[in-house]
Amino acid sequence: MTYRHRIRVRYGECDMQGVVFNAHYLAYADDAVAEWLQSALPAGALYVSGNGAATFDFMVKKAVVTWAAGSTFGDVVDLDCSIERWGNTSFDIAAVGTVGGADRFEVILTYVSVRPGTHTPCRVPDDLRSALTG
Amino acid sequence: MTYRHRIRVRYGECDMQGVVFNAHYLAYADDAVAEWLQSALPAGALYVSGNGAATFDFMVKKAVVTWAAGSTFGDVVDLDCSIERWGNTSFDIAAVGTVGGADRFEVILTYVSVRPGTHTPCRVPDDLRSALTG
Amino acid sequence: MTYRHRIRVRYGECDMQGVVFNAHYLAYADDAVAEWLQSALPAGALYVSGNGAATFDFMVKKAVVTWAAGSTFGDVVDLDCSIERWGNTSFDIAAVGTVGGADRFEVILTYVSVRPGTHTPCRVPDDLRSALTG
Amino acid sequence: MTYRHRIRVRYGECDMQGVVFNAHYLAYADDAVAEWLQSALPAGALYVSGNGAATFDFMVKKAVVTWAAGSTFGDVVDLDCSIERWGNTSFDIAAVGTVGGADRFEVILTYVSVRPGTHTPCRVPDDLRSALTG
Predict the structure, then answer these.
(1) How far does the CA of residue C105 sit from the closest CA of chain D (Å)?
(2) Confidence band (pLDDT; 50, 70, 90) for D119?
(3) Using the beta-carbon criterion (under 8 Å), do A119 and B70 form an inter-chain contact?
(4) Of C15, C22, C73, Cβ closest to residue B14
(5) Hey, are the CB atoms on A23 and B18 less than 8 Å from each other?
(6) What is the pLDDT of residues A4-14, one digit of tens each?
(7) Most buried in the list A3, B69, B72, D122, measured by CB within 10 Å?
(8) Interchain proximity A15–B50, CB inside 8 Å
(9) Tens digits of per-residue pLDDT, A88-103?
(10) DSSP letters of chain B?
């Protein structure tokens, strides 16, 4: 199962080298994963990260970004997200970034499942797993 | 040789989970490395990344961020930077982030040396190497 | 003539109050204006702000943001842009932000036309004026 | 009573025009005001915006940014904050930005006092008023 999220690069995200400043790629990947989750969960599922009323939540434990080439203003970036690994309390998502089909970057995110309103690890909920596995 | 850079977490950098949003840690590390460079280079050295008149430049090829715990508004973060590896056209810098001496995160950045005004790799300049090796 | 630009709020743009951090609204308005320009200019027009080869450029002189209510993660914001004023070397653009038709914020931006590659004011180019007036 | 807050411009905050991207000036002013508040409040005062346990909170209602000149990487910006107006449920703060004593920008922020954990306006607390009036 793969989820494609599309982002247009904003002018203000590009630095003096004329390419997207490195930190924004993590924001792109985070946005892609958040949209995936919103679209995969059944209507009525109670989930907004950081909301104490959410039924689950998770935090990033590790992020690995590798660039093949920079992206810049005018580029439309496709991020193809997929599950790389399911663990007991953690899981990995890969987001591969392309522009017009050409490789630009890849982000591997390791998430830890936490109890909502806390930063305490807990087992990955079954419904989250099934929602993202399809 | 180690360079310590200090950053106060800004309110607007914290998200709804009450901790610094993940992308900002790359901005912190980038800022630490930029400051290290400015402080290590001899006065009069011509270097501003993205400035065509610079005598050298570099781009990030890979970034690995690992979190031990989140940071939040009110935290004063120390980033201790050091060279992890010198290659021919690339080098790695580690930035270890602590708050009051307690581990919070670590960023490993792989940089590629490029000809100023281009994104073309070139040999790491000797004076950059000696400036950061001390 | 009005240009509508749509932005989905990103999770990382929301702060601990649960709403979009104030600075990001300027980024939204900037993005809306940049997209308007790209869509309004004839194909082949040479324009990327900050690119020395551009045939015109402009900088923000003044920005006034007024909020009716906050926006948050999950909101899809429509920004309706229109020209408020044409001057000799400057012009004003209004970007009105709504979510599902309800008022959220308004940004009034005063731009100064500058010679590309400089920060020197110059007369607003006729083709820019006609492109945005329709 | 005036509060001076100092910010070093970060490389990643500068865009392709070689100056700080406009949205970041609001982030600078927000940071200056937040630091002023933290320094002015008596030790033990319970205040973190967005924290439900805070004894007061406030939101930005209007922001006016006027630029005299751009700032760039390498600049150290001083923001001099002062109260411009006290109302019943709102107040204005001015943050004047200079670099080496030269004017760069000014931000006028209109804040509305709200009950913590809500976005409901309330009377400006007396202790906040006295803390910022000195």
Answers:
(1) 9
(2) confident
(3) yes
(4) C15
(5) no
(6) 999 999 999 99
(7) A3
(8) yes
(9) 999 999 999 999 999 9
(10) --EEEEEEPPGGGB-TTSSB-THHHHHHHHHHHHHHHHHHSPTT----TT-TT-S-EEEEEEEEEEESS---TT-EEEEEEEEEEE-SSEEEEEEEEEETTEEEEEEEEEEEEE-TTS--B-PPPHHHHHHHH-
pLDDT band at A46 (very low <50, low <70, confident <90, very high): low
Task: Give the one of B10, B18, B34 whose C-beta lies nearest to D11's C-beta.
Answer: B34
Chain A and chain D share a number of CB contacts under 8 A equal to: 24
Do residue A30 and residue C18 have CB atoms under 8 angstroms apart? no
ipTM of the complex as predicted: 0.94
**What tokens were used for C42?**
């004839």
Task: Give the Cα separation of C126 and D7 in Å (integer).
Answer: 39
Residues of D with CB under 8 A from a CB of A: 11-12, 14-16, 18, 21-23, 73
B27 closest CA partner among A63, D13, C18: D13
Rounded average pLDDT over D78-83? 98
pTM of the entire predicted model: 0.95
